[in-house]
Write a structure and sequence with these properties.
Layout: E1 2-6, H1 10-21, E2 27-30, H2 36-43, E3 46-47, H3 51-57, E4 60-63, H4 70-73, E5 84-87, E6 103-108, E7 120-123, H5 127-134, E8 139-141, H6 145-152, H7 154-174, H8 179-199, H9 204-211, H10 217-227, H11 230-245
Parallel strand pairs: 1-2, 1-4, 2-3, 4-5, 5-6, 7-8
Antiparallel strand pairs: 6-7
Length: about 250
């Protein structure tokens, strides 16, 4: 199998690293832009002359260009009906792409694909796309494009979570704690919290109730966060991201 990348920026580079880490046997082709030369030198990959050559050679094409350039990037290329195109361009609905022979799939991977740990949503459910995405972390098929758009907000939440980790690290260091220790402790705490929710059958509400015992430190912190407007601020941020995505989805 041959996988081609049209657009080789930061996200594509993370995906390519993840694919190579997963003991890949396929050929990976790069379009002549972005980080292509760097990745070709690092991993021994082929850089195509242009997108036409890449399309002719690839079985699966990952489209990772700027959203504004996504529809035009597929125009005029020699697509085949047995091909799959996976667009990772946020906010670009399937209806905005030109009619091509290849099967179109939308996906929203995180840069954690680099370590094969990205929970990646995708739509529609196409087996070849699902199998490729699953090599980069948990592959989560969605029911429709409206649900996909809402789930895409998670890509922003991923960055916000990293910023919360950063803020917690900084606070701990200011109190005299070792930076390396705080980095590992806070990061692994977020991993543990996520795994508990993902792998425990109890409701999230019940889990939080069990943690926030009356008079305890969890209850104290949650109360202060609520007083400072955290739930409303977080919801507003999510809604703003969704609003940014939605106008370009039709």
């Amino acid at each position: 199998m041959t996988i081609g990348f049209i657009g080789v920026g930061h996200l594509a580079a993370s995906m390519i690293t993840g694919l190579i880490r997963s003991d890949h046997e396929e050929t990976i082709l790069l379009s002549p832009r972005g980080k292509s030369k760097e990745l070709a030198a690092l991993y021994g990959l082929d850089i195509c002359t242009d997108n036409r050559e890449l399309t002719e050679r690839a079985d699966i094409v990952v489209l990772a260009v700027r959203p504004v350039d996504a529809p035009s990037a597929l125009e005029g290329l020699p697509w085949r009906k047995e091909q799959v195109v996976i667009s990772v361009c946020a906010g670009v609905a399937l209806s905005r792409f030109p009619a091509i022979e290849a099967r179109l799939v939308r996906a929203m991977p995180l840069t954690a694909t680099e370590i094969n740990a990205s929970p990646t949503v995708f739509y529609p459910e196409v087996d070849r796309a699902a199998r490729l995405i699953a090599r980069l972390g948990p592959a989560i098929a969605l029911r429709n494009e409206d649900e996909f758009e809402v789930a895409t907000v998670n890509a922003a939440i991923y960055g916000w979570a990293q910023d919360l980790i950063r803020q917690s690290m900084i606070w701990g260091c200011k109190q005299g704690a070792d930076e390396k220790i705080m980095r590992q402790l806070v990061a692994q705490t977020f991993v543990a919290a996520g795994r508990m929710i993902a792998e425990n059958n109890s409701s999230v509400e019940q889990m939080l109730k069990d943690l926030a015992t009356p008079g305890g430190i969890t209850e104290l912190g949650l109360a202060i966060l609520e007083q400072k407007g955290q739930p409303e601020a977080w919801s507003s941020a999510c809604e703003a991201v969704l609003a940014r995505l939605t106008p370009t989805a039709t």
